[in-house]
Amino acid sequence: WMENRAEVDMNSFIVIGHRGASGYAPEHTIPSYELALKLGADYLEIDLQMTKDGKLVAMHDDLVDRTTDGEGKVSSYTLAELQKLDAGSWFNKEHKKFAESVYENLKVPSLEEIIDTFGETANYYIETKNPDKYPGVEKELLKILNDNGLIGSGAIKGRVMIQSFSEKSLRKIHASNPDIPLIQLIKYQGRAKVSNSQIKKWKEYASGIGPNYRMIDKNYIHTIRKAGLWIHPYTIDNQEDMKKLIGYGITGAFTDLADRLVQASKEV
Ligand code: G3P
Ligand code: CA
Q: Where is the GP-PDE domain (predicted)?
């Protein structure tokens, strides 16, 4: 399964392994990403935080407390200090059913280590998280991707997608490199509605949107698709919801359980 991935068919349904295979393994660790690929995920989802010494690392929270044995902000640790923490044992305690001794003492991976490990055998769906707290995060991300041939001349389009709740962050990236597919994340508080002027704005810089899945309906999905935008809702772990939304025409989804979404996409 470690063969290089071919060009992504932008018209086919994509399975996005949310924090890897985070329903089965400690999120944002190398084993979690390995498992996601093995279970059939098309993309590895990576949330980015920045260390005190400016390194990009994969972690969802801006605090290390939930997913390591340390405490405090990621930004108060250098990469070397952060990598002394145990990023796996918490999972074994909380998910006894999926606990594995190899998860003990796993390290928080840097983005560069993830790319060194998977290279062209994976596709990457990367989120700039808290970009306002990390000035320069977009520039550093594009530099790493470019240095590794994942974007720029010769790179396969769609090898990397970048997502953010921050429109500002996505517009910055679009201004530096208009070829990277960008996804505008949205968190609806109530039932999702969308206007033509909103769609027009998204289309200035984004290829698609990522809404929270519970707030969207058939009508909303059809409107987004008619506008020619992709729609990748987050985070769907329930097979019934997967099938329902695939039936309505979503073009991909985030899931903690990649195998289940692969299965659902075959059954619809
Ligand atoms: O990036 C899509 C989804 O992951 C957004 O929510 O909080 O899990 O990053 P979160
Ligand atoms: Ca995310």
A: 13-265
Contact 163, 82 (CB under 8 A): no
Ligand 1 atom 1, closest CA: 127
Could you read off the pLDDT of 172-189 as tens digits, one per residue? 999 999 999 999 999 999
pLDDT in tens, 132-157: 999 999 999 999 999 999 999 999 98
Q: What are φ and ψ of residue 222, in 5° steps?
A: -65, -40
Q: In terms of C-beta density within 10 A (0-12 exposed, 13-18 middle, 19 or more buried), how is residue 43 classed?
A: buried
Phi, psi of 97 (to 5 degrees): -60, -35
Distance, in Å, from the CA atom of 48 to the CA atom of 212, rounded to the nearest integer, reads: 19
Atom of ligand 1 nearest to the CA of 60: 9
The number of helix segments (H) and strand segments (E) in the chain equals 10, 9
